[in-house]
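Supplementary notes for students who missed Thursday's class. We covered one full example, reproduced here. Read the sequence, then the structure, then the short commentary at the end.
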Amino acid sequence: MDILHRIGIEKSTPDQVYEAITTLDGLSAWWAQKTVGDTELGGVIAFRFSAGGFDMKVTELDPGRLVRWEVVDGPQEWVGTTIRWDIEQRGDYTIVLFKHEGWREAGEFMHHCSTKWAIFLMSLKQLLETGEGAPDPRDVAISDWH
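Structure (token representation):
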């Protein structure tokens, strides 16, 4: 089972979107302010949130087109899943096709994570269109899991 989302970002290029997904400064500006690690191929990025954290191994990079991570530490439901970002220009929009792949079951936590991914993808869009995202801890809280 997979979480799937699509967003279109105006006023941005595929290279700018790629940079926001593949640099510590970019990631901390829209997803988790507490982001550290190695964003190069084979590196591990640590994301720390108010409600916990995840470690992602960078498994694939194609500048301006594709980013892929494998979850190597975090909640049991996430470990072994992969995150994939496909990026392309279509007219005035840079389109991001997002996939969080390989969930073992569609439990309540997957439902929660799908909503949170949508919120954070909107934060990415906001960052690239306005210059300011809403990363954790400034993101929209949706429940006691944040």
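Commentary. Strands lie at 3-9, 34-37, 44-49, 52-62, 66-73, 82-90, 93-101. The chain has one domain: 3-130. If anything here is unclear, bring it to office hours.
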